[in-house]
Specification:
name from scop, 111 residues, 5 helices, 12% strand, two-stranded antiparallel ribbon, mainly alpha
Length: 111
């Protein structure tokens, strides 16, 4: 696999939710490759939590900017918002919590 192919596999999307303006979260940024890296980098520098889900990112990057997410994705997005409720802004604590939740998911899936 070439470096270009690996780079283009990276996908990222950013959502914003304003209950007074929209009925669902809206795509405010989306891209692949270098654009995905910039989106992720900007979020991290700004203290915005980053959640990794390749399948969801693939779906979101196919949508138009400014579009509300479709109802079929509500459950996935709700789970991400719930995940972020534990976000503290402290990278070490957040990483520890992320690893703990990842382990809990693995155990739940193997049961």
């Amino acid at each position: 696999m070439t470096d270009f192919t690996r780079l283009m596999e990276k996908k990222a999307a950013a959502l914003k939710y304003d209950s007074e303006k929209n009925g669902a979260p809206v795509i405010v940024a989306a891209g692949m490759g270098e654009m995905a890296e910039k989106i992720t980098e900007t979020a991290m520098k700004s203290g915005v939590p980053v959640y990794e889900d390749d399948s969801l990112a693939s779906l979101l990057t196919q949508m138009k900017l400014g579009a509300e997410i479709p109802e079929e994705l509500f459950q996935a997005i709700v789970e991400i918002y719930i995940y972020f409720l534990g976000f503290t802004g402290d990278p070490e604590k957040d990483q520890a919590e992320k690893e703990k939740r990842r382990e809990e998911r693995k155990q739940a899936l193997s049961s």
